[in-house]
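Support reply, case 0932

Customer input (verbatim):
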Amino acid sequence: MTPELTVLALAALLQAVQFLLMAIPANMELRPGYLMSARDRPPSRNLSERTARLQRAFANHFEGLILFTIAVVVVTLSGQATDFTAACAWVYLAARVVYVPAYAFGWNPGRTLIWAVGFTATVLMVISSLV
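Our regenerated output:
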């Protein structure tokens, strides 16, 4: 397995961890009545600030994971995997790991800068496969 595919697998596991970090407190805060309902209405109580941030970080990783997956597929299937693309993949994953506490604890502007590092690493992977 290429390093890029390894990082993709680890990024999927990170998404699962992020789900747990968000879902456990969300379930405790929203209570079973809402969670077992059809959810046709908004919950009667709001998530805490930190849980809501974890929810947004979780959703943001889905968005980033789509582009990163495309980058890994393009690099892998085109046979363009290099030390550079492997480094970019690891930078993406490191940025996503650090992004979770950055978002949860409201590190500003750090959160945005961390996001930009991961996004840039992903875009560079795609560009490198085209040159």
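We compared this against your earlier run and they match. Two observations from our side: The first helix runs from residue 3 to 35. The chain is about 80% helix and 0% strand. Please reopen the case if you see a mismatch on your end.
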